[in-house]
Amino acid sequence: MHYVEVKYQPERSRACLGSPSLVKLDDGDLVATHDYWGIQTLTGDCGLSSVYRSEDDGVTWENVTHIISAQWGTLVKLPDALYHISATREYGDMVIRRSTDGGFTWSLPRDEKSGVLLRNESREGATKYRFECGGGTLVHDGYLYKSYDKYAYAPGQSPWEAGNFGTGMARIPLDKDPLDAGNWTFSNILTFDAAKLPDPKLSLGNKTGWLEGNPLPTPDGKIASIMRVHVAKPNVAAYLTLSDDGKVFSFDYETGLIDFIGGHSRFYVQQDAVTGLYVTFSNFITDEPVPTHRNLLSLAVSEDLRHWRRVKDVMRDESGLPPALSRQLTGFQYSSWQFDGDDIILLCRMGYRGSVNFHDANRITFHRFKGWRSWL
To answer: How many structural domains is the chain composed of?
Structure first.
C-alpha cells in the first residue's frame, strides 16, 4: 500500500487527527485540511485546523497555515475562491471562510455578513447543540449545496449517540456572496425516528440515527442525500430527498434504507462526468459480528444511487496484525477525494502503525489511484 504522509501525530501527544478535506485548484495545486481532537486538545474550547499545499501533484506537502476556531471542516472550490465550512468549536457556531490566495490566508467570520451562518443556542445546564460540517458538498445547476448535522446533547445523556443527530441541508446560488448568511436557504432539521422502522429488529434504540450526508443530483433531476446510518444491520445507508425549493428534507421509512458498501462510517459520494456513475470509497463490512471495523476501504459504484456494486478493495491492513487486532487498531476512514483526469486523488484519516485504536487516527495520508475506470 503506497501513500504519502501529510501529517503524523505521535500517540504521546494524546491528540488525534480528523476531518480530512482535499481540493484541486484551477492552477493544479492541491490544498488539504484536517483538524485535531482528543483528550489533550482544545476541541471544546477552540477548534483548530491545519492547511497544507502541494505543488507537485501530491508528492510532497507543506503546512502553510492554521485556522483557529475551525472544527469538522470541509473545503469547497467555487468559481471565485476557495472556501472552508466548519464549526468554530465543539459547541460553537457554523461558519464559512474564504481564501483568495489558494489557502495561504483566510477571512475571519465575525458576524452574519462575514461568514457566521448559524449561531449556536447552547446554554450551560440545558441542552447543548453542536454543528458538524463534515458532510459532503455539491456544486450543481447554479447552486452550492452543503450537508450538515445538528447534534442535541441533553444533560445526563451519553455524549455521543446517533439518535441525537439531526441532519440538514444548506444551499446558496453561486452568484450570491457565501459569507452573507442571508443568501443561504436552510432546510428543516430531520431526525431519525426508530419507531417508524418497518422492521423493529433494525432499531438500536437511541443509537439509531444518521449523520454526514452527501448531496447529489438524482437521475430524475432531484437532489438527494446519501447518509451514514446506524441500524442493526451492516452495509446500509439512508436515502433522503430535498424539495425543489431547498426547504424540506424528507425520508421514506419503507424505501429509504438502501443496501450499500459500508455505510456505518463517513463516506463521500460523487458523480463521474465521464461514465455517469456515482462513486464512493467506504468501509465495507466483511465481518458482521464487528459492524464498526474500518480496516478495509473499498471503491463502489452505482447507476441510480440505490443499487451499489463493490468494484475494488483499495486499502487494507498490511501491518501483519492478526485479524482481530487489525480491526481494533487499523482504520482507513473518512476519505475526502476528487476526480483528477484519469485518476482519483484521496486524503485519508488513518489509524495505522501506532494509533491507540482504529478510530483515534494518528496519520493523514494522500493516495492516488491511477486509471481507476479500468477497474469497472
So the answer is: 3
